[in-house]
Amino acid sequence: MASPQETPPSNAPNPRLISLQQPEKLSKILEEDKDDCLACRLTGAAAFIGLGGYIYYSGKTQLTARRNEIARKSGGMGGVRARMMGTGLLSLSFVGMGLYRLVN
């Protein structure tokens, strides 16, 4: 007499084993890993904001120290202003990324 809970034949594949052999979808993994802890956000934000501040300070210091040399090589003060704008934009970008990291 057969028991009420019959076991499948031994040659039938185990459904749990098949599901373990298939990789998870990337979209599902990214959705589960959406939230970061507060310490991770603060550390990432501080790193980006600190890097932006360092780029601004270091760039401005170097450009003011070498202003005459840069102006002489570029043929005027346009080269110095362009580099100052580039340094400012780069540092502002890093500060923006830090603020975005803090919020999201």
From TrEMBL:
Keywords: Membrane, Transmembrane, Transmembrane helix. The chain crosses the membrane at residues 38-57, 84-103. Residues 36-70 form the Distal membrane-arm assembly complex protein 1-like domain. The keyword Endoplasmic reticulum does not apply. The keyword Cytoplasm does not apply. Coiled coil: none annotated. This is Distal membrane-arm assembly complex protein 1-like domain-containing protein. It comes from Lepraria finkii.
